[in-house]
Amino acid sequence: MTLRITNQMIAGQTLRNLNASLARLDDYNRQLSTGKRINLPEDDPAGAGISMRLRTNVLETEQYLQNAADGLAWLTATDQGLDQATLALQRARSLVIYGGNDGLAQDSRDAIALEMSQLIEELIQIGNLKHADRHIFAGENTLTPPFAPVYSDDGQRVIGVEYRGTTGDYSVQTDQDLAQTLGLQQEIGPGIKMRISTHGDVALQPAIEALIRARDRLEAGDVAGLSSESVAEIDGALDSILSSRAEVGARASRLEQVRSRLEQTHTNLLQLVSNREDADMVEVIMRLKMEETVYQLALASGARIIQPTLMDFLR
């Protein structure tokens, strides 16, 4: 049986071919204008799914990078505060040694005690330093100033200090308290967290208390106490600060390494996304030109095939 080919069938097939060619032209034009091979999920369903997962990984990595940067900024502020405290303690040590001189008049010791009081106030201010509206030496209780000075009855002298932050002595805490103590952390990877908090009761409280006792000995003319006990207490407080700075430095070093790895991971992920989504512009231009030629030829061929009409035969 011979299949009869009609003009309508030829015209229909020609139009379908032209529409298919136009669709390919539109696809290549879209790739050329956007620079992307995948613009819609239907362009490459499997590739689009992989691309979406890669983009999710990119966003997660960017968040980890931001967390690392925030952690480094916090640790930098912490180290700067500890550096200021170190300078204050070194000055206090010099004053104590000078005040412990047997030949020094009491009036001179009283003057030194006044400067020591200023150093005590300075250390309390350092202990209550804030970074991004949070107190850096409060442990995890960052919304409350960690150091509250206790004044004499006349309100003129600091006679003690109350620490209101979370304690750094884990041995005396319950499991629930310990979970809170470890709470101020930065997530720097899937399931990887780093504690960035510093506890003022460990880092700074010994220094404040040592200076208060040194000032009292200066006022009392306790030369022996100044030369032996106060110098030793200030040295111990300096050791505590140096230990805290070493811990902060170690965390900052680790965060720097983590940030470097995250930056490399981020670059690699972006390259993978680009490989999956981006169009090869040279190939797209070549295919576009070829498709334009095919379309023009199809138009010309179709015009010749479906040109005769009934009116042509009635002339």
Number of helices: 9
N-to-C order of helices and strands: HHHEEEEHEEHHHHH
| Biggest β-sheet: strands ordered side by side in the sheet | 1-2
Q: For this structure, what is the CATH homologous superfamily of the domain at 84-254? A: f41 fragment of flagellin, N-terminal domain
CATH architecture of the domain at 84-254: Up-down Bundle
**CATH class term of the domain at 84-254:** Mainly Alpha
Instruction: State Rg.
Output: 38 Å
The count of DSSP E runs of length 2 or more, i.e. the number of strands, is 6
SS-derived structural category: mainly alpha
Taken from the alpha-carbon principal axes, the silhouette is rod-shaped
Tell me the major beta sheet. Answer: 2 strands, antiparallel
